[in-house]
Amino acid sequence: xxxxxxxxxxxxxxxxxxxxxxxxxxxxxxxxxxxxxxxxxxxxxxxxxxxxxxxxxxxxxxxxxxxxxxxxxxxxxxxxxxxxxxxxxxxxxxxxxxxxxxxxxxxxxxxxxxxxxxxxxxxxxxxxxxxxxxxxxxxxxxxxxxxxxxxxxxxxxxxxxxxxxxxxxxxxxxxxxxxxxxxxxxxxxxxxxxxxxxxxxxxxxxxxxxxxxxxxxxxxxxxxxxxxxxxxxxxxxxxxxxxxxxxxxxxxxxxxxxxxxxxxxxxxxxxxxxxxxxxxxxxxxxxxxxxxxxxxxxxxxxxxxxxxxxxxxxxxxxxxxxxxxxxxxxxxxxxxxxxxxxxxxxxxxxxxxxxxxxxxxxxxxxxxxxxxxxxxxxxxxxxxxxxxxxxxxxxxxxxxxxxxxxxxxxxxxxxxxxxxxxxxxxxxxxxxxxxxxxxxxxxxxxxxxxxx
Length: 452
Prior knowledge:
The chain has helices spanning 34-44, 57-60, 68-72, 79-85, 112-121, 125-131, 183-195, 206-214, 223-228, 232-244, 320-323, 338-344, and strands at 7-8, 27-28, 75-77, 104-105, 144-151, 154-161, 164-167, 170-171, 175-176, 217-222, 248-252, 274-285, 288-296, 333-337, 347-352, 395-396.
């Protein structure tokens, strides 16, 4: 960052296609080259074992959902061995008939925020292919797989072996419903490696994973505040725009009481739980339009039981075409009216590659600019605006040179501040309070008259 009190132009750090850190050429996480490691294993006739994320309790971490005696019984098994232990004669498969939000269900790890993000990701096939290379199979097998995440300005390629934690011959964490499909447990392991351990994935916000799946702009909406302020129409428009802009959309319920416990309320909704939003629609009910939001529980079960739920009688009073939008099956997915959605859910998260979802202008091309720096104690960490040392904070001057006066709601600039964690475990990181203060600077043109 610049010297105290000075201004600097923002440096464009967008990675050119093909350069290291770009989507087509992600950086090697922990300096591990997938292709080279795989080729070495095939040449030696051995299966890959990842020494940087070993198949033992160090990578599992201290899971609060497991008792100490259960931790001692955790076995790390490769997919073929897992199927053999389960008396399943099928061959292990990476992905069968495409990736779907119905492929998996949550396990012992409290990472619903991450699984809700995966559910949203499956709806965006291009982004999914960026994160999950779909050319991976168990043929020409070497026990090695890889996945890609966007981490603080660059894409990284994360290599793992396929040892997965099991308890009583069942996958300890996320499991695929297909029996022999393993793309989700392997993806989860790669993200656990980035976080530090499986235990470090416990508790979080979907916006974190969505950001790592897209490298885009993430925004959070306090739903009850939006609804009480009478902004339902604006919220609906942004939801619709976000769906059209290929965004990842998730939401979450409030916790009940002082403890973060996933109790099931009388409504069928789970407290302190993350969900994905998989669609929006309008149906005609006795001549009036009703706005509905489709929501998915990453458990793969346990659904809302109120108005417009799978078994609601309201579906009998709409057209046949609208009735077909409702599927009465216990798969974790259900519809809710927008008003109920705002009442029973606490937060909504939208993450998109660009900010077009804000106003629905899908034609606008945004220029991404990133600047890396840090606050230094006693030098460039001046505190908030009420502090006498505030002026020592790094300062930047941004000038918008082109304004479209015909677009009254035109969004010209969006600023996002990210704080990088220290190296190590996600749950042990120390995040300092940070923020941005924006000032409008009016630039006037003066004409100097020289009298003689």
